[in-house]
């Protein structure tokens, strides 16, 4: 058995998959915001909505990361 890789429970695997999906969605939103910003007449309302959604995703990412790596008080 390979001792280099820690045992991951089903919940840990699911959390990591969720985190990966959230990070991808966050990157996609970032690319969309960037593309909309380069248009001749940027849709400021759409950009603002995407930025709010991106911030909400960031909050969700932090929550999932905290569940994966809980704070350890030394």
TrEMBL record:
It holds the Pfam family DUF465. It comes from Brevundimonas pondensis. This is DUF465 domain-containing protein. Gene3D superfamilies: 6.10.280.50.
């Amino acid at each position: 058995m390979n001792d280099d890789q820690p045992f991951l429970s089903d919940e840990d695997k699911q959390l990591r998959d969720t985190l990966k999906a959230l990070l991808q969605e966050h990157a996609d939103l970032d690319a969309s915001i960037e593309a909309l910003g380069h248009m001749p007449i940027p849709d400021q309302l759409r950009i603002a909505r995407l930025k709010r959604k991106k911030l909400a995703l960031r909050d969700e990412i932090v929550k999932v990361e905290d569940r994966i790596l809980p704070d350890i008080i030394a």
